[in-house]
Amino acid sequence: MTDPIAWDQARETAWAAGYDAKPAPAELSFDEAAGSALAAPLVAVSDLPAFPTSAVDGWAVAGPGPWRTGGEVLAGHVPDAIGPGAAVTIATGAQVPEGTDGVIRLESGTVEDGFVTGPHAREWREAGEEARGGEELLPAGTPVTPPVIGLAAAAGHLTLPAHGRPRARVVVFGDELLTSGVSGKGRIRDALGPMVPHLLTAAGADAGPSIGPVEDTLEAHVAALREALNDADLVCTTGGTMVGPVDHLHAALAEIGAEYVLNTVAVRPGFPMLLARTADGKFVAGLPGNPQSAVIAVVTVVAPLLAGLRGLPLPPLRTVELAEDVPGRGSFTHLALVDPAGRRLAHHGSAMLRGLAGAAGFAVVPPNAEAAAGSTVGLATVPGVWQ
């Protein structure tokens, strides 16, 4: 075992490894691009809006009033020009007729004997008011959020240049694990096989079903890794990250020719995590077998790696004000489960999930430090968990 890497450095190292290995960008559908980053600037295909567009329902009028009403302009139609003294009913979003001097709002107009009166103003958006055709709307590197997709569609795009979702698989190690029923007679239900794929999906991967449980032999570990790597860019394994009598992951990595990006992290819980890279540029993330430790490994290594692979920045930490003192863990970073109010949660052992299920995330207590009640510290959130 090598000396563990510092927790914050582990996040940065995993992200950089992903960013350096991100695939060439492609023109992706909006669904495929969502959650990635723009690989090139977003440019308006045409003026936005493309023509003068009414901002209200009412009457488009020309010249001095009162105005004789006649006709209507609906969204999606190209209107005829209007002349002095004329008024046409107009809908929000409709093209403003040529010759219009103002629009009377529906709630402000009075119609009598075929004439409309009321205050009028330039109640429309001019062509190109938001952007001109060819204008850069957003720079490369901008995360593709739902509003970005909406802007891209409004600006005339059907696709976006972005990095696709990395394909991911989970390989579960352990003879003691059950995939159904209840724990007993020395065997326990597997929690990570059902949970981790959803964490990967929330972190931006295209995650397939878990493989396993895989029996505790080197041959079975190697075969499972090779199977998963055949159709995945990232394989997350669970368990076997130490050097015990049935921990075969390190030997299996050597067998497939993978090299460590990092091996163990100075964090509690979650210390025995790792990240390795194969000769063809794929990744294996070794998650500890204890459920909470495995989640910490996802937060520390996997989520940053996936962000890098999609061209996104390192996921930022949030902050939380602590409601009580949180002890340190010596020279290691302490990740302590807290609720949204900054209170520590019970059932926070590395093998437990009960506390995690109600947590806002992990309060980050730096090495060689403690965090006092009332202090504001970093909060490492879990992919897919919204508080």
UniProtKB/TrEMBL annotation:
One example of a Gene Ontology biological process annotation: Mo-molybdopterin cofactor biosynthetic process
Protein origin, superkingdom: Bacteria
Pathway: Cofactor biosynthesis; molybdopterin biosynthesis
Cellular component aspect of the GO annotation: cytosol
Domain MoaB/Mog, chain residue ranges per copy: 169-308
CDD domains: MoeA
Any one GO MF annotation of this record: molybdopterin molybdotransferase activity
Entry similarity comment: Belongs to the MoeA family.
PANTHER family per record: GEPHYRIN, MOLYBDOPTERIN BIOSYNTHESIS PROTEIN
Name of the molecule in the record: Molybdopterin molybdenumtransferase
Organism listed in the record: Glycomyces sambucus
Phylogenetic placement of the source organism: Bacteria, Bacillati, Actinomycetota, Actinomycetes, Glycomycetales
